[in-house]
Design a protein that fits this description.
Layout lengths: L7 E6 L6 H13 L3 E6 L11 H18 L4 E4 L5 H16 L3 E5 L5 H4 L2 H9 L6 E4 L2 H9 L6 E3 L6 H5 L9 H7 L1 E5 L8 H14 L4 E5 L5 H11 L4 E5 L3 H9 L3 E4 L9 H8 L4 E4 L4 H6 L4 E4 L4 H13 L1 H19 L1 H17 L12
Parallel strand pairs: 1-2, 1-3, 3-4, 4-5, 5-6, 7-8, 7-10, 8-9, 10-11, 11-12
Length: about 375
């Protein structure tokens, strides 16, 4: 980049916590540290109690205020979700930043259509969030939704990012017959373990698939409030060939992707652009997913697997069977998914696009629209 230096203060989750936003900023840190400082806010632990949240909120606001006054920042980047505390906390940050006459960017993480319909959320967006100098979202439909409710500020569409493990992976796309894949096919569900993430739909789809392909295996990777209930459900239903890994990082996470053949993601949650989905593409895994969040944008750039509006486990089982039974299709998806992931979601590419947005807002420099110009 040429031109003037810039310094951005970004509010981010504690990077030791699980979750897509923490993973995003942890991955991009080495690429952004020359012009961005992180301020960790929000929950300090996965099991933080409700009574602790107001004290954490006040601490975060005070810390943000001190950093804002003490640092020579050109702009502030806030990263709200539609969670109750997060959306109010980041609104307070926006007001403080604007009070200090700082350029302010809002990167809305995830998306919840039910929240957007609430009068109080719309009021908060119109009265505070739309005062920011620019907004970043993770899907074309999210941009259109904000425009429909009155946002007149620039809205940029961006993505999450590949993990370093996925980016550095060297795939070996060996041709595998349908019979061989059927005999040892490994399906991966990697997500936070919650009902809304589709974990029960994934298990029931797997059970349906086993009727036709009895040797398939399902790996459930991640942590969350529903883990023990899910394990009890599997035991009660006597479903075999399911393994639980817990939360994975580093080499362990890489191994579970390398050993898998299909990425199953029947989420009904308010997704943005899930990191796990992009990683699955980088490992050459065909996607079998619901049409949620910004996932339809992936299918707009190429055939990356199969997507459905359905929540019926039988429909997901049928789509997985198509992948298992078509060796040519599997090979095509593996190569194309890897190529698309590197083209659009490699850490350096994402960091460069994010930096270009910042410089466009701050200095009016040209902002290439590499990602969403094709959509």
């Amino acid at each position: 980049m040429t031109g003037r230096d810039m310094r951005i203060l970004a509010t981010v989750p504690h990077l030791s916590q699980p979750g897509g936003v923490a993973s995003y900023y942890s991955t991009l840190y080495s690429y952004l540290k020359s012009d961005m400082d992180y301020l960790a806010v929000g929950a300090r632990a996965v099991d933080e109690r409700l009574v602790q949240k107001p004290f954490g909120f006040l601490h975060d606001c005070w810390t943000f205020f001190k950093r804002l006054r003490g640092g020579q920042y050109d702009a502030v980047l806030v990263n709200p979700t539609f969670g109750r505390y997060a959306i109010i906390r980041e609104a307070a940050f926006i007001l403080m930043a604007k009070g200090h006459k700082k350029k302010t960017l809002v990167y809305i993480r995830g998306w919840r259509w039910d929240a957007i319909k609430r009068r109080c959320v719309r009021w908060l967006l119109r009265q505070i969030y739309f005062r920011a100098d620019a907004i970043i979202v993770q899907g074309v439909e999210f941009k259109r939704a904000l425009e429909r409710i009155g946002c007149k500020k620039p809205i940029y569409v961006e993505t999450t990012v590949l993990s370093e493990e996925a980016f550095s992976y060297a795939p070996k796309f060996a041709a595998t017959s349908a019979d061989a894949v059927s005999a040892c096919c490994r399906i991966l569900f990697l997500s936070r373990i919650e009902k809304e993430k589709g974990v029960y739909e994934a298990i029931n789809a797997f059970r349906k698939l086993k009727q036709k392909h009895p040797s398939v295996m399902l790996t459930i990777a991640g942590t969350g409030a529903e883990v023990e209930n899910v394990k009890q459900y599997v035991a009660k239903q006597q479903i075999t060939n399911i393994s639980f890994t817990g939360w994975l990082v580093g080499q362990a996470k890489r191994c579970v992707y390398e050993q898998s053949d299909i990425f199953l993601f029947p989420s009904s949650w308010g997704e943005g652009m899930p990191n796990a989905v992009l990683d699955a593409m980088a490992y050459g895994l065909p996607l079998v997913t619901r049409s949620v969040g910004a996932i339809p944008d992936l299918f707009a750039i190429g055939q990356v697997g199969f997507m459905t509006e359905s929540r019926n486990p039988a429909d997901f089982a049928d789509l997985m069977a198509k992948v298992i039974e078509n060796a040519d299709l599997r090979s095509k998806l593996a190569r194309e998914n890897r190529a698309l992931a590197l083209k659009y979601f490699a850490p350096l590419r994402v960091a460069d696009r994010l930096r270009a947005i910042h410089r466009n807002v701050l200095f009016g420099e040209e902002c290439p629209q590499e990602w969403f110009s094709n959509l």
